[in-house]
Amino acid sequence: MQPDARAGKVPGAGWFCRVPGAVFEAEPGAAARLVVEQYPLPQEHEQVLRELTDGVRESADALRQGGEWTGAAGLEAALALDAGMARRGVRVRAVYPRALLFVPLHAAHLRRVSDAGVSVRVLDHVPHDLLVFDRQTACLTAGPATGGAPLVRVKGTLLAASFAAIYESYWQRATPLSRTSAGPHHTQLGPREKAVIRLMTNGYSDDRIARKLGITAPDVQSVVTALMERLGAGSRFEAGYKLAREVDPRDL
Question: 199 in a domain, yes or no?
């Protein structure tokens, strides 16, 4: 124990220990052991997150506001951690603010995260940063992520399970990245998709589009179906409406 550490008894809970960086520790029994630690320095944040991502076995869930991304270096570091977990067979899920889709650098990052094997969803409002590892450990910031707030780590199922339940409620309300709008800041359209969209929005039928492009009608239908899925549209009419609103004709 460090020289300035203090220990004592918590009535009905067990022993606690206070040291620099440790806020509270209680151990009424092995199954209910709880440790809360605080890390005020940015370099400590990185060390703790690397330790947790290296040790996770089954699941890693994240709510991310995006405030930690100060540039390309931060994006690459975050991607490396996520991809490393996914390669080891860990189920990795992440929820981000929908507004990031309209920032080209961040939108491209989200696509790369998804391609690395992470299940990505977006939400209109992400209220805070939260990471849950194996439902045993949770990390959150003790204030706005952009304000240099300390990182708090909670170890033990007593509280971590509650944070996992909170995460699950956000996950269920979020929209899968694959169903978000295919606007110019989100998804790059291929030449065939652009041609089909251009003709479809001009009122061409599938057969006429097929003849115009020298492809088959089933090929056209396949492109349209994929576009509807990407746009989260339930019909061709809805897909056309969303495309008219979200795709700049100059991009076609």
Answer: yes
